[in-house]
Structures are given as structure tokens and as C-alpha cells.
Amino acid sequence: MQQPHSRLNWAWLKLKVLAHKRQLIQANLIAVTATLLSLPIPMLMPFLVDEVLLNKPGWLLNTLQPILPQSMHRAGIYIAIVLVAVIVLRLLTMLTQVVQAREFTKIAKRISLDVRQRMLLQLPNMQISAFEKYGSAGLASRCITDVDTVERFVSDTLSRLIISVLTIVAIASVLLWLNWQLGLMIILLNPLVIYLSSRFAGHVKSLRRKENAATEAFQQALVDTIDATRELRLAQQEKHYYQQVFGLASQLSQHAIANQWKTDALNKLSFTTFLLGFECFRAMAIFMVLISDLSVGQIFAIFSYLWYLMGPIQELLNIQYARFGAQASMERLNALLDLDTESVNTDSLDANTVEVKARVKGAAQLSETSGSGGQLNAVNALTPSTGLQIQFDNVSFGFEETPHLFNQLNLHIAANESVALLAMSGGGKSTLVNLLLGFYQPQSGQISINGQPMAEYGVNQLRRQVGYVPQHPKLIAGSLRENLTFGAQIDDATLWQALEQAELATTVSRWSNGLDTDLGRSSARLSGGQLQRLAIARMWLTKPDLVILDEATSALDTATEAKVLANLQLFLQQRSCIIIAHRLNNLTMADRILVLDNGKIVQSGNQATLKQETGLFKQLFASN
Ligand SMILES: Nc1ncnc2c1ncn2[C@@H]1O[C@H](COP(=O)(O)OP(=O)(O)OP(=O)(O)O)[C@@H](O)[C@H]1O
Predict the structure, then answer these.
(1) Is residue 472 in contact with ligand 1, taking CB distance under 6 Å?
(2) Quick one: 4-337 is in which CATH superfamily?
(3) What ipTM score was computed for the predicted complex, to two decimals?
(4) Residue whose CA is closest, atom 24 of ligand 1?
């Protein structure tokens, strides 16, 4: 489901900027003050040339003389006073500029936070295939690098645009006042420079896009290589893979160099265009001394203002370049925002968070009845479930490389039935589960839950009722408690009970911090089998109506596996259950075994019957 209204564009950015109108006005007032404070500076010293050195008293001396005692009417005093005034004005300018920068930074940072939050709101809605396509580094680089590029543009524009334009207008006004022909020329020159530079700056967009794509490729390769450190070190291929990362780093560097120098070159070209105009202007100013009554002091002042003009002109040029960079980044961000979302998962992040908390049904139930803050108790955790009834009707699905993985697949699992799913490795067992959980959509056919098509039943509703234990469970950064509860309020007794069910309680009781032991960012602290048992405990806590065990005990020794399965026996009997396993002893829990081959269910029955049949089951367990 697309959400075109959620695209990032100039209009959206403008809305966001205008949402900070009050702060923006304040910040601009401070910026105007800074400009006004700095505006007289170029004029003061040059005017001393006319009034003091060339002895032609004007407004400066006319202002100073009445307020100074006669004894101080001396050139040295005037120069010193003007010097002090210039220093004070420069210091005040700097001070107001600091305050102004702080205010603009605050606004820009809030807007970039907004953009980042938009991306973070999009991630929970994105289809799993998008995560597979972009990878963690690709998504992270968009949420970090591209958002930073947009922020830089917003920040540059907010802090510089109005003030640069005002400064140019102010300088043009002073120049008009000093000499209207020169003032007019400056007014005409600037739009021409801005127009030409915007033509040059257009090239920057593709350069920036390429650099950001190269950053993404480099990050992905680096993350993948770091993640595979053990395997690569054992295979003594670490250097080879780091060479590839070096290659991507140097590609990134080349793109960055191309972007940097070409951007600089184009920027300089824009500035040189301005300088050429400036040289014409200067020649004209000198000429004006000959043909008009412009004094030498005024010429100094005009030249000072011209130099003063460089700053805002350069700022405006930078804004142009930042704009094209931001446009390229917004396109990359929009590529994510434009993706089809999981049509079934349109809850907001907040709603999802609430939902995750409510997912532990015992917690929700108890908070309704006792108001004890949502504590799940042991009795609730053992409440039998009504089970779920699952139906696949003519479901077809495939990937690019395996287009006909499922071919009109039909499958029925009754409420509270335990079904073992068997197939060759790569036969599609995990994909079937992913289809059931709504991570992939069938290309044709229909999946129904309790007799209702999935779209009507609602995948979120289904997910609330499913306890899925994958072969390689993932941890979130945090404590064991957080990894068991995913943020839900569950009392310690229940958590320990879950650990006991999963045969993990003895191990955890030896940890000095027990349930609050930090498991870190990765699963490094837990063995593969401990990780699987943690996932089983997590599943047990959610009291699902449908349990999916996807090679869930493959890393356990047979003795521990037998204990865990014995602990769970009653719990599983009272629920619908899909068991994916390669070992025969796991199949004993199943009421029925389904054998999947070439995208269809080819055998169905209990162990005893299937052992008699010629078919894939016999092949798979030939040695047993
Ligand atoms: N995200 C994906 N993109 C492309 N192809 C995929 C994807 N996931 C799985 N496949 C392909 O689909 C086929 C079935 O994969 P699946 O993981 O479902 O098999 P499986 O039966 O669970 O295998 P195993 O028993 O080895 O875990 C494989 O050929 C696999 O390469």
C-alpha cells in the first residue's frame, strides 16, 4: 500500500520550517541585528581617509566633534575612537551571530529529527522483502547520511538565506546611497550570478547520489565482513574479504573526491563569475571617480562593501549546492517511503509499541481485571488456547531465482492440531511460515485463518496469536529480561517459570545479575542452544494460539531437547502447532506429518503410515 502523501519534498520541508515560525522570526531578528551591527564597519575606516587624512570633515567628524572636548579634536583620537567602535561592533556582531547560529541549529536539528522519525515510522511498515533488498547498512546509511545531507541544507538555508539576501539588499542600498549607478549595477549583477550558478550546481545532484550509494555499498560490505569475522578468520580469507572492502572504500573515496572537487570547482566557477562581474564593477567604480564627485574615501568604502558582499554571495552559492545534494538525498529517502508497505500493518509506531506490550495476553488480561500494572502470573501462562485453524487454498509463490517454489499449494491445519512439516532442505518450509505470518504475500491463492481470509482476519491480529521460534533467534540490545518480555510488564516468578520450561533457569540462576544480565548487542554471550531456549521461553510467555517451531531445538543436545519437549508437551497439545524439524524425535509430538515436495503437499499422515509409504518421507528417514 503506497503512501504518496508521505514523500519528502520542498513543500514538506517548507511546512516543517513554517511550523517553527516563532523561533524562526526570533532567530532572523537576531540575524538582522548581527547584520545591522556589521553593516557600518566597512564605512567607518575609509571615511576617516576623507575626513581626517584629506581634511574634508563630513558626518563622522560632525558627529564626533560636538561630543568630544576641544582637547580631543585630534586625528589620532578620531582614529582610535573609530578603531574601538569597529572592534566593539565586530565583537557584538560575533556575539549575535553565535546566538543566531544556536537558534537556527535548534530548528534544523528538530527538522532533521522529524525526517529521521518519518523514516523510523516507515521501517515498521516496510515489507520484509525491502529489508532483504536494502540490507541493514543500506537502511542505516539512508537514515543517517541522507538525513544529514537534508539537515545540512535546511540548516544552511535557514541560517544563511534570509540574512544573505538582506545583507546584499542592505549593501546594495548603501551603494545606491553612495552612488546610484554602482548600486544599480550590483543589484543587476547578483541575480545573474545566482542564475548561472544554479545551472552549474545542477551537476552536483548526481555526484552526491553516487557518493551516497557508494557509502551504502561500503557500509554493507564492512558490516557483512565484520559479522563473518570468525568464519573468515578460520578460513583464513579475512584479508581477501577486507581487500574487497578496501576496493569499495576506494570507490567511495573516488566518488567522494569527484563529488568534492567537482562541487568545489563548480562553486568556484560560480564565484569566479561573480568576481568577473566584480572586476567590471571595480573598473566602473574607478571610472566613476573620474567622471563623478566620488571621493577616494568613498571608493575605499565601496571596495570594502564589495568585499563584504563576497560572504553572502558565497553563502547563497553554497545553498544552491546544498539544495541539489539535499534533493538527491530526498530521492533516496523517498525510494524507501514509496515502497509498498505491509498493507496489513498500518499501525503507527506508538500503536505498535502499545501492541507489543499488549502482546503478552496475560499482562493485558490481568491489568484489566486486577489493575496490578499488567503482571502476568503463572496460572494465566498455562491457560489452554482455543487454537487456530489454518487453510492454504491454491497458494502459489516464488522468488526471482525460484519462481515456482509453491505451486497451487493446499494445506489445512485444524484448531489445536500439531502438524510437522517436512521437506528437503530448501524445500520452502521457512518460506511457507513467512507466507503464513504475512511477511510475504501469495502471488495467487488465499490463506485463511479460522475460516476468514487473511486480509479480513488481519495479520496483526494473527501475529498477536502466534509464538514463532526460529532456528536462529535474534536478540535485541539489552538485558535477558528485556529479551524475554520485549518491554511487557511480567513478574519475575513468571519469567523464571518460562526459563524453567525452556531448561534455562539453572544457567541464568548462576549469573550474578540473573534476569537483569545484559546480553549485549549480539548473541555472543549465549550459546546457540541457550539462544534457542531463550526464544522458547519468550514464546511460552506470549501464550500463543499457534506455535511455530522452526528447527527450534536444532542446537540442543538430545537430552536437553527431550526435557524441553517434555516440559512443553501439555502446552503444545492445547494449541495449534507447526513443527519444522529434521529429527525424528521431534515428529513424535505431531498429530500429523505433512511432506512438502516441489511446492505441493505430497504426503500426509502419521509416522507409522508414512514409514510404510514409498515417498519423500521414507527417503528423508531412510536410516531411522
Ligand atoms: N528472501 C529470499 N529471496 C530469494 N530466495 C529465497 C529467499 N528466501 C528463500 N529463498 C529461496 O527459497 C527456497 C526455499 O527456502 P526456505 O528457506 O524456505 O527453505 P527451507 O525448506 O526452510 O530450507 P532449510 O530446511 O534448508 O532451512 C530456497 O531455494 C531459497 O534459496
Answers:
(1) no
(2) ABC transporter type 1, transmembrane domain (1.20.1560.10)
(3) 0.96
(4) 425
